[in-house]
């Protein structure tokens, strides 16, 4: 029989992991404050939670004193709010934010969890990777082991998506962009019914590439195809790819990062395309975030780089916990 989280024996079993989490929180704040970052707090209930196609948001309602009401959503990330602060001139900022993603739950996922996000104007992608390496080395031991996988933090691998597909799948993924049959043929696979290029891209990524990432050493998977740019800027040197990276440690996807797109017109076009895809999947609707687009048009600092890092997963890696429930107080 599983004991409830409030039971003294249950808390005692989690206590070593939770104490390590508390120390990690203190070390995180000390790291960023020492480097001139300001800790911020932004609203959790928002009119528009973002346009990510595959994330499901929690709905809620604000009741106003005049008797009216307003539909709101628990945010899936504080990124839009934090970028508004960057436009306002807040400078380097970080936040340990509670975020919500509906219909998620596993050893590595929770429908409510903590996200560490930070934004560094002018850092660019290489600068943000340097910051991330310094942060992990400051808050983690030199060698970490989690879920049976060991990572040595003395070296971080920087591997482009194209390099990863060439190494582990044997294909030129950028040459096939948008052409699912061509990618399937090159990879020696049969397309599944209704499988688009992006679907096959992620199938190959999950099945053939991710099992090799972040094992002996942490891995930055960089320069994603432009179709997966999301909120990232296209690489000025190669517009086929976006200035985006994901970080893997102990085989766990730990963070997702962008050099931020500053073109409001392009961002609007991406939002509308994502909304159309979400509607086709019968996803819920909310107003387009015109306030964010107006802020972007006003001017986000160039070469701003931002990262969203799963703090609960970082606590797992720091403490050696095998599942996310062990690093949650309740």
Explain this structure.
The protein has 330 residues and is α+β, with helices and mostly antiparallel strands. The protein has a single domain (13-156, 217-327), classed as 2-Layer Sandwich (BirA Bifunctional Protein, domain 2), CATH 3.30.930.10. Helix content is 36%, strand content 24%. The protein has nine helices and 14 strands. The strands form three sheets. Strands 1, 5, 6, 9, 10, 11, 12, 13 and 14 form a nine-stranded mixed sheet that branches. It has a three-stranded antiparallel sheet with strand order 2-4-3, with no helix packed on it.
Q: What are the salient characteristics of this protein?
A:
BirA Bifunctional Protein, domain 2; 330 residues; three-stranded antiparallel beta sheet; alpha+beta
Q: In terms of topology, how is this protein built?
A:
Blueprint: H1 8-34, E1 38-39, E2 45-46, E3 58-63, E4 69-74, H2 79-88, E5 93-100, E6 112-120, H3 124-139, E7 143-146, E8 149-152, E9 157-160, H4 161-168, H5 180-187, H6 197-209, E10 219-225, E11 234-235, E12 238-249, E13 252-259, H7 264-280, H8 290-299, E14 305-310, H9 311-319
Cα radius of gyration in angstroms: 20 Å
Architecture, CATH level 2? Answer: 2-Layer Sandwich
Strand content: 15-25%
Q: Main sheet, how many strands, which sense, barrel?
A: 9 strands, mixed
**What distance separates the N and C termini?**
18 Å
Provide the helix percentage. Answer: 25-40%
- Give the overall silhouette: globular
Task: Give a concise summary.
The chain is an alpha+beta fold. It contains 9 helices and 14 strands. Helix content is 36%, strand content 24%.
């Amino acid at each position: 029989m599983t004991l409830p989280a409030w039971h003294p024996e249950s808390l005692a079993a989690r206590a070593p992991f939770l104490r390590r989490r508390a120390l990690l929180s203190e070390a995180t704040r000390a790291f960023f404050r020492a480097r001139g970052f300001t800790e911020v707090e932004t609203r959790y209930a928002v009119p528009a939670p973002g346009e990510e196609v595959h994330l499901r948001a929690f709905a809620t309602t604000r009741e106003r004193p005049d008797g009216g009401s307003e539909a709101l959503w628990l945010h899936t990330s504080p990124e839009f709010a934090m970028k508004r602060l960057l436009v306002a001139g807040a400078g380097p900022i970080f936040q340990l934010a509670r975020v919500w993603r509906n219909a998620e739950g596993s050893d590595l996922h929770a429908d409510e969890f903590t996200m560490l996000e930070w934004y560094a104007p002018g850092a660019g992608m290489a600068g943000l990777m340097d910051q991330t390496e310094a942060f992990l080395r400051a808050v983690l031991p030199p060698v970490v082991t989690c879920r049976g996988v060991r990572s040595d933090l003395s070296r971080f691998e920087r591997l482009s998506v194209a390099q990863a597909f060439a190494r582990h799948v044997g294909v030129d993924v950028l040459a096939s962009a948008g052409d699912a049959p061509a990618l399937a043929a090159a990879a020696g696979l049969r397309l599944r019914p209704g499988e688009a290029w992006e679907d096959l891209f992620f199938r190959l990524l999950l099945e053939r590439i991710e099992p090799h990432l972040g094992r002996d050493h942490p891995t930055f998977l960089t320069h994603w195809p432009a179709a997966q740019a999301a909120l990232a800027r296209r690489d000025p040197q190669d517009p086929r790819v976006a200035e985006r990276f994901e970080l893997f440690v102990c085989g766990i996807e730990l963070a997702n990062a962008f050099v931020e797109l500053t073109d409001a017109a392009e961002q609007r076009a991406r939002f509308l395309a994502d909304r159309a895809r979400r509607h086709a999947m019968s996803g819920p609707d909310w107003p387009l975030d015109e306030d964010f687009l107006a802020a972007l048009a006003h001017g986000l600092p160039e070469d701003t780089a931002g990262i969203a890092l799963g703090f609960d997963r970082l606590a797992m890696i720091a403490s050696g916990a095998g599942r996310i429930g062990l690093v949650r107080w309740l």
